[in-house]
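Case study B.
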Amino acid sequence: MPDPLFVFIAALTLGACCLLVASRNPVTSAMGMILALVGIAAEFFLLDAYFLGVLQVLVYAGAVMVLFLFIIMLLDVQPPGGAYPWKRALAGGAAFLLLSAAAFALLAPEGSLAKAAGPTPPELAANPESYATAAKAFGRSLYTKYMLPLQMAGLLLLLALVGVVTLAKAPKSAD
Amino acid sequence: MEALLLDLLRSPELPYVAARGLVLIGAVMTIAGYSVLLERKASAWIQGRVGPNRTTTPFLAWIPLLGSFLRLGGFIQPAADGGKFLFKEDPIPAHVNKPYYVLAPVIALAPALAVLAMIPLSALPDGTPLALCPGADVGVLLMFAVSSLGVYGIALGGWASNSKFPFLGAVRGSAQLISYELAMGLSVLPVFLLTSAPGVDDGLNLATIVAGQEGMWNIVRQPLAALVFLVCIFAETNRHPFDMPESETDLVGGFHTEYGAFKFGLFFVAEYGHMVIGSSLFILMFLGGWQLPFVETAAWGALGTVAGLAIFGAKLAAFLFFFVWVRWTIPRFRYDQVMRLGWNVLLPLAVANLVLTFLVLAVAG
Amino acid sequence: MTHALAALDAFKSAAPQAGDWASILPEILVAGLGVFALLQALTLPASGRWLIPAVARVGLLLAGFLAYQAGESEGARFGGLLQQDASTHLWRQLFLLCALLTSLVGGRFFRQRGADEAEFHHILLLVTASLMMLAQSSHVVTFFVALETATVGLYVLCGFLRRSAASLEAGVRYLVAGGLSSALLLMGFVLLHGVAGMHLPKGADPLQFASIAAALLGHGGEPLALVGAALVLAGLGFKLGAFPFHGWVPDVYQGAPTPTTALLATASKSAGVVGLVLVVSGPLAPLAAKLSPVLAVLAGGSLLAGNLAALGSSDTKRALALSGVSHAGFLLAGIAGLVTLRSQEGVFGAADIALPIVLAYLLAYVLGTFATMGALAALPAESDERRPLVALRGLIRRSPSLAAGLTLGIGSLAGIPPSIGFFAKVLILWVLVSAEAWTLLALAVVSVAVSIHYYFSIIREATVRTAPDGEVPPRIPLLDRALPLGLGILTVLLGLGSLIKAALG
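Model:
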């Protein structure tokens, strides 16, 4: 029997995702996405991955989605008119459910369900380095093994920054 | 007795958790109410007025001396204010987006309450922090993360009001909040650097940070970080001189213009909640938390816990007074000045301070 | 204190060593130049801004020399994040060549249109550096970060002429398509990681290519692994612009500024190829028998879809974009042949030279594309995104050198002997023969025949048809005329050279 808290949060996250996909109001979609991101963070907490959960909230829910919402509000995107296509939405949802159920039945390896529902395997709990969830272990592997991708990600951010400035700055008035 | 207290503090059983929640809400409402009183009395004092001194109740007023003290000091005023919020008619304007209009105050208050539960107030005799909901080893980050969700309350409230001035207030306010979050996050990194020396394993835990200030407060070691952080918490709480979302002279009432009664009250409590959070973080990270210089409260056992609580409370009260003092002393910034200060002054300062700390640690360590 | 010092020592020994950094010196140089371009833009006066492209080009040449010097150095770097071998250095040089040519084509193009050269070079150089990293990555994290950095840069370059609605639209379209493909790729890797994590012994890194391959060796038949592999292929197929993921190609190529189109067509496609080669010969190698029919379908579909769509196009850029899809088909056919040959355990060692053949095809494609796109970029046009075939009419009178460059470049793309494009196509066909992929071979031959039709309609407009009367010959600077012509002549010379070499050897 899985943790009831897990079931509750998972249902909440899935519901928020449905809201994100099915809503015609962009603000509602954004709110659904925020809720889904927070729900995923909560699942990280249940897995004892506190640091990842915090980062998830800090980066996605707390920063990225604020900008999304901000822009949706500023652009004042109006929901499309006309009746809501209930039939299409329901058909799509049902097809997706069937497909994912089939995929799950097909893909989930033997015994993985029982494993997922059970407690943390002792070999993982005993070796915190391989199960790096604490901030310090995270930082350690980031600055040793993953030093190179870290530097590359830095360049990626610089590139994105320059790109955004290039695309967004006011045109020169001279030409 | 002691076992019951510990259970109340630690037990994961539902009744205890519910009790903790009630204690939290009661405490926050009380603190918010008396912060308002502090605000009104202090502003009156600064402006040479008297401030609230009329509200009274039967029975209490009949007690000689104490009754008139309570009345003149305005101590019954918060209860009257709260009662008024509760019993007023709660209108919902016709032009608003109803679900979000109702949701916004809740979204504004919930993160503040969640963070308030994580603040460690003192150290228990066994050395663990005294908090309703002690955070993991990433306590500070968690608090930053959750409190940053408060911006949705402002953004949604202004947007759902479907009205010009609230919307302007919401846009301004959310832009200000996300701008100052950067400088705020960067400004405290040097503190973590100082705390997380090699061998310290939970350097992001507020209790560890407080313990690391034994002997010397971080405000002495990191004055620049403290200054930047201080300015940023003013901006993050939307307090004067950064009250862009409200700014009653140009935006009527800002993002909560269309709100009244209890919904407005929730926004109000959230603002004071954020004030308490900001003050507590500053006290914990820069002012030594529940410690006093040259006083070894940790050695006093249970008495030390109480003393720590008192020290923390005193510091908090002083800091809240400081908030009010600034509000009635410094004029409001213009919006472009707010943005310039955040991006062109505080952010570079925070980065420079961080690099400086790196260099000092690399050379000295 | 000793505990702290021991921790510090452990940290230092786990961090990358100096030798690791030295092995990626060309990449560091290129990325450093990219940052330096920004510094130059900050400090140089307006009269000294010509230095920015000059420094960048010299630096690119230097990096190419360093990559050439690295020659045969092999081995795992950065604790298995990177894996260098002889082909690594060839890929590096190919990407550097693309960057150099893009810089030459794009410099004046962007200056004329009021876009900033410093930022253009900054983005171009960082994209190049990350593509070079991609070519040697042997770990999911490096692979993905490198690919993502390059893609983000290309989004910006697509929308670089931001006063043109078409350019911005191309940028947004590419952003959406690129985001989708990155998501597919990442999902695929996550599933593969899951399979590897379940079956690998403790201590193995389930994100490393070799470990994933080791895990798939015994458990490659698991549905989870197959879905993961399919998603990874789909993600890379998007980047490559291969059928059935080529929907974004025509609009983005057409709307993007012409130098960016050239870069997309060459560097980005090469990135797709190198990514695909790395993946099919690394983590997915145990699945070769299952992969080769899939790759063959992708290749055949791209050949058909690209060529048939290009037949109906009346815009030069669009036709070239769609022909790019069919070139992707050729490259995929080469990779499919490579995978098949490998799974058959080497007939005459054919698998070993299949990779150099793919590289040679890319080189021919790069030269031909830059000759053509360079000529297009040099031609004045009302709007860069609309270059109808008719606008080329009588180019031979207006600018003989451009017409010659365009014709030679297209000749190479079409595979007319004696250009290098011809030999490249023949070599790919040879790989297909060795792999006994007869259907694919037939499709490739048919597609060459079809492609000649639209390639020749471009050449006919430029050379045979006469210009409308009263057209004033445009004044085009020497460099812009010389570059396409030089590249065009180079395709012929290289073709003749390889002919002579084949005849002698």
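The radius of gyration of chain B is 21 Å. The remaining cases will be described in the next quarterly update.
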